[in-house]
Amino acid sequence: xxxxxxxxxxxxxxxxxxxxxxxxxxxxxxxxxxxxxxxxxxxxxxxxxxxxxxxxxxxxxxxxxxxxxxxxxxxxxxxxxxxxxxxxxxxxxxxxxxxxxxxxxxxxxxxxxxxxxxxxxxxxxxxxxxxxxxxxxxxxxxxxxxxxxxxxxxxxxxxxxxxxxxxxxxxxxxxxxxxxxxxxxxxxxxxxxxxxxxxxxxxxxxxxxxxxxxxxxxxxxxxxxxxxxxxxxxxxxxxxxxxxxxxxxxxxxxxxxxxxxxxxxxxxxxxxxxxxxxxxxxxxxxxxxxxxxxxxxxxxxxxxxxxxxxxxxxxxxxxxxxxxxxxxxxxxxxxxxxxxxxxxxxxxxxxxxxxxxxxxxxxxxxxx
Length: 368
Description:
Layout: H1 8-16, H2 19-26, H3 33-40, E1 45-47, E2 62-64, E3 67-69, E4 73-75, H4 88-98, E5 103-105, H5 113-117, E6 124-128, H6 134-146, E7 151-155, H7 165-169, H8 198-206, H9 214-222, E8 227-232, H10 235-243, E9 248-251, H11 265-276, E10 282-285, H12 291-299, E11 304-307, H13 309-341, E12 354-356
Parallel strand pairs: 4-11, 5-6, 6-7, 7-8, 8-9, 9-10, 10-11
Antiparallel strand pairs: 1-12, 2-3
């Protein structure tokens, strides 16, 4: 079957992967309302395309934290990619690098920071969970720095793991032969079978529930890398993140896997963008499956987007070539959306190019 859009990879992945693995990747928390809403909310944003603009040359390139990348589409951190394909994070790293964009490596990767760095040059960020044992965190951050990673994406929405019922039903555990490679030498690399979700038990035992804003200062004291705060969905927290010296914000609800009934990230995005007032860049994570989604996020003020599940499902379907094609399709669709909207560069994408159903469009007079 010829794949013509990113969503088609999920069907292939579902057929290929063991149920426990597919369910772990695909599911959200509790009723999975936010999981559906992360997608559905994009369909409530409509375009206001401008016509008769010379779009013979279109530039989709951008910069993120000073790094030049080919497009505003990056890879979000997703755990345990060797469950999807034997090459795991190495394939994702190679595909992302060849696409000229940024990969974020999960703390819970099945390949280490050193192994990912060994795939060759590329701009890579490291996603960090803060463990109760801070020496573990210090070691991990230093290793990421030494391996050439360029930023830390600090996950802040997971003091405890959300209730993911399929993982409970499946008694989720890391398959035999796989470990969380970054923690292997620290005796923290195994996720065993329990009477619950093995990952929930692991998080309860290892991840620091006392994590607070002051720990961003602590993190800044142990690394010179810029820190992106991942998991902000309110204006209040966005302002505090700026005050504490965050280099950027990733508007994320953890792929709808933590607290159900939070808004879709595309709905929360504008509130966060307005709160930071241009002081730091804001990125969007969650629900992006089309180039049109990328355009909508940028029109609402995002500096770029991160994609998670599409990278897992394309990896499961066709390894490195799958991830490569997934990124290329998103890029092609995004470029086409720009052309059909009358935008030649990211700078030209504005709020006037869209209208949403959750506000009175600001381009209309106040009194109708």
